[in-house]
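Appendix B, record 7
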Amino acid sequence: MTDIKPYEPTSPGDLITAELFNRIQVRTQQDIAEKVKDAVAKHQYVDRARNADALGQKTAEELTDDIVEKLKALVPGLTGHRVVFKRLQPDEPALIEHNLGGYPVVDVCELVRFPVVGSADGRQWYDRVHWFLYHRTEMKIRRPEEFPVEDPPVPALITIEDSRGPAFKQRFEDVLLQYGVKYDGQTALGDVVNEFWKKLFSGLNDPFDESSFTNSPWFDRCCGDRRTVESLKRGGEWDDLYLKVVPRKTINSVAPVWPLGVEVVHYDRNRLGLIRADFARLTQRSVEEVFKRVDPGTDANDAEGGAGGVGGAAGGAPTGAPGDDPTVEALLRRLGTEAAGAAAQRGHPEPDELFLMVVLKV
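Structure tokens (predicted):
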């Protein structure tokens, strides 16, 4: 109390006037008002800190990061970026009506099948698929008791995610946002998953059969228990859900990989097509590479009939068909056979059908 100073300092014998008394009353009221205001402000700040600074158990900074991540997932669709999944047959072009009003840059990748342990209604099986939903704890899944005989043999633990390097995975929440899947906290995970598969195989995407996608044992158990999105978020498991897909760019390669060639044609500013490339469209350089692969000691120009039937400079358009030269034709056929064999070993049930991811950018 010794630190409190008088409003109006006075000394013994000073005259107490009405003016002095009024000033003291005014200062007293002002002081009381300021202290009440400070006390109310402190009380309001405490209530706000308890109720508003943490929303959904997240701070303002964490909420901002979440919003930024969601915007990043939406940006591709808002800027003319499209990802389309197609099934390409040997003699039937695949049409994509993108309606972008221009000629987009097109990138084509093969969808590679990969080994998984699928599960539904408590039954597990070994399979090779294009899409797989799994939980972070399922980086490796034990092989079921019944499994097919393969060469090389199926390992006891199926690797879903390799911890030693980059993983083929996308956050399930980001994919749901990308495909516009609607849900709330009370939506069951099983309903979210079913709606996602429907959205994935709709619109510009081709329908894929059930051999192309499946869920993990964790997803099967969780969907069976009818757990909601809110319960998964509360348990910290919602951010541990991933979609695995393996796009691989092997298009227009002369090595024994599959597919050997896919051409992109623009019909107009709103439509494009994917066409399987014919061996006859290989360039002179490609034929030379074929000769080097089959017989490193053989020069394409020295082979029987030479490669004159193909003609053209490296990278140029061919002036004739390789079928005019039986040696070139045989080599190309052998290359195609090797490519199909390599594809079969990687899990293609029908190498003639290509499963593709097409990326359009304007």
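Remarks on this record: The mean pLDDT is 75. The chain has two domains: 82-112+247-362, 113-245.
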